[in-house]
Amino acid sequence: MAFVKVCALSELEDDTPKRVELDGTPVSIVRTEGEVFAINDVCSHANVSLSEGEVEDCMIECWLHGSSFDLRTGKPSGLPATRPVPVYPVKIQGDDVLVSVTQET
């Protein structure tokens, strides 16, 4: 897996998503509950940016219709979304946040 620096850890505010793009993939970076998560930034139900939504209890809520996705697994917690969104591995090296959106083949 190729990890790429997306931002500095010090740039992330708790429970405030940060949108980045990696290899053409929109990703929402979220610092919450002492951890950093990377989740695909497109809601599987409405095709809108998740990084514009609220974060609470390790979930990110889509601002348009209220679907929430688990930051650890990408699984929706209820309707209207029924499909999960991809999550990506995160590494912290010093103050650097690194994410991999590539899959091993």
From TrEMBL:
Domain Rieske: 4-99
Keywords: 2Fe-2S, Dioxygenase, Iron, Iron-sulfur, Metal-binding, Oxidoreductase
Keyword Aminoacyl-tRNA synthetase: no
Short name of any one Pfam family annotated for the protein: Rieske
CDD domains linked to this entry: Rieske_RO_ferredoxin
Domain of life, per lineage: Bacteria
EC number of this enzyme: 1.14.12.19
Enzyme class: oxidoreductase
MF GO annotations: 2 iron, 2 sulfur cluster binding; 3-phenylpropionate dioxygenase activity; metal ion binding; monooxygenase activity
Record InterPro entries: Rieske_2Fe-2S, Rieske_2Fe-2S_sf
Matches recorded under NCBIfam families: PRK09965.1
Record-given protein name: 3-phenylpropionate/trans-cinnamate dioxygenase ferredoxin subunit
Organism of origin: Streptomyces brevispora
